[in-house]
Automatic annotation (TrEMBL):
InterPro entries: Cation/H_exchanger_TM, Na+/solute_symporter_sf. Keywords: Membrane, Transmembrane, Transmembrane helix. Its main location: membrane. GO terms for biological process: proton transmembrane transport. The keyword Transmembrane helix applies. GO terms for molecular function: antiporter activity. This is Sodium:proton exchanger. Residues 402-423 are annotated as: Disordered. It is a multi-pass membrane protein. It comes from Roseateles puraquae. Residues 33-395 form the Cation/H+ exchanger transmembrane domain. It is found in: Membrane. The chain crosses the membrane at residues 12-36, 48-66, 72-90, 102-125, 131-152, 164-186, 198-222, 234-260, 280-299, 311-333, 339-358, 370-395. The keyword Transmembrane helix applies.
Length: 423
């Protein structure tokens, strides 16, 4: 084959392959944007509800994304969730835990108690211990996407909003590490060598930490020379984070753990506050929009039937366990019971983090993941839709939403008040 033929084949691949991916991205973006604006214009609900609803409608008509994630859906999910986790990590000051040990105890208790409750409850539905433990770990993290997007859109500020970011970052960290340990243990239990499995785990974690440190260092160097509130600087920052996430996927390390650890390193190795537009401006906002549509479409009517009552039991056990842990330790964590209840409600949704973890488990351990798929996807389908509404209610309960602007009323003549004398 000569160079001309090789070049023609490469060009043909570039011309054909991206077309379907591009159509997917454009379709998801348009559907989500239209649904979000319709919801915002007709209700007082967050636009996130419209984004998710667009995905749910697509799934109901058989056009949802396939699992495990692949192609454009995986790329968008990796980038959007990675950006969100990096942003959350960069806003979490871990010294807060040292000043407030009750908050640290709350984080550990709500994550562990919810995992135990889910595993025990699923055993009553004749789910195997392996599947029950997998579901418990997958259901552990609260949604970085839902709580962050809703609080940003509604302009929420206060203790509950800040504590939700902290707990979300920590229980995502717990869940990813727990899933990695579970996979390592079962790989050794299936006939592999435990020392070899632990060596592979150590190499993976060291690689993740190294890549996270490189990203944090690159952002720090950029911030020393550029104003991160500037549009050009934000695009550079967006590119650094996106490149690191793509590199993590190529190397084979966690695309969830790496950006989260990078954000934590950036925030907790420097006393300066890191300020840039939320979700990295328009580019990140578009990715987050598509993320909600993709996650909302990751189910089918068949999966809802298969998940059935086990998914409902998972959701109930998870909510009750998180509520008990957070409300019980609220006084020690220097919060009122009202703030504790509101915080527990913000931790209710189950979203993209669990979906990505499930996708990775399906690739690594398909037999183990088979039993967890219908339960987790059915839970995500329900909680992804009602989650934003629950977060909005919780933030209003905590009194952290700004007052809604009064709607302008028309008088009987149909004119706006104060315009009677105008022609």
């Amino acid at each position: 084959m000569n160079a001309l033929d090789t070049g023609a084949r490469i060009w043909a691949g570039l011309a054909v392959a991206p077309s379907s991916a591009l159509m997917f991205v454009v379709g998801v973006l348009l559907a989500g944007a239209l649904a979000g604006e319709f919801i915002a214009a007709t209700t007082r609900l967050p636009r996130v509800v419209g984004y998710t609803l667009a995905g749910c409608v697509a799934a109901a008509f058989g056009h949802g994304v396939g699992m495990p994630l692949s192609g454009a859906a995986q790329t968008v999910t990796d980038l959007a969730l990675g950006l969100l986790l990096f942003e959350i990590g960069s806003r979490v000051h871990l010294r807060w835990l040292r000043r407030n040990p009750g908050l640290a105890a709350t984080s550990l208790l709500e994550a562990s108690l919810s995992a135990v409750a889910v595993a025990v409850v699923l055993r009553f539905f004749d789910v195997s211990w392996q599947t029950a433990i997998a579901c418990a770990i997958l259901a552990m993290p609260a949604p970085a996407a839902v709580s962050g997007r809703v609080s940003m859109e509604l302009g929420a500020e206060g203790q509950v909003t800040q504590r939700a970011s902290l707990l979300t970052a920590l229980n995502t960290l717990y869940a990813v590490i727990a899933l990695t340990l579970m996979r390592t243990w079962w790989a050794a239990d299936d006939g592999g060598s435990l020392p070899q499995a632990l060596a592979g785990l150590s190499i993976s974690l060291i690689t993740t930490l190294g890549l996270a440190a490189l990203l944090a260092g690159a952002v720090y160097l950029v911030a020393r020379r550029l104003d991160l509130r500037n549009e050009s600087a934000v695009l550079l920052l967006f590119g650094l984070v996106a490149f690191s996430i793509v590199a993590a996927r190529a190397i084979g390390v966690s695309t969830l753990l790496m950006p989260l650890v990078a954000g934590l390193l950036l925030r907790n190795t420097s006393d300066r506050p890191w300020v840039w537009p939320r979700h990295f401006g328009t580019s990140g906002g578009a990715l987050v929009l598509m993320l909600f549509v993709i996650v909302g479409s990751a189910w089918s009517p068949k999966i809802l039937v298969a998940g059935g009552f086990a998914a409902l039991a998972l959701m109930a056990a998870r909510f009750v366990a998180k509520t008990i842990a957070i409300v019980a330790l609220a006084p020690w964590a220097k919060a009122s019971w009202r703030q504790g209840l509101a915080l527990s409600i913000t931790m209710t949704p189950l979203s993209a983090t669990a979906l990505v973890m499930l996708s990775e488990l399906m690739r690594a351990e398909p037999e183990l993941a088979a039993g967890a798929v219908p339960i987790i996807l059915a839970s995500i389908a329900v909680l992804e839709l009602i989650g934003p509404i629950a977060v909005q209610f919780a933030l209003r309960l905590a009194g952290e939403l700004p007052p809604a602007p009064p709607r302008r009323r028309r008088n009987e003549s149909g004119k706006q008040p104060g315009t009677e004398g105008r022609p």
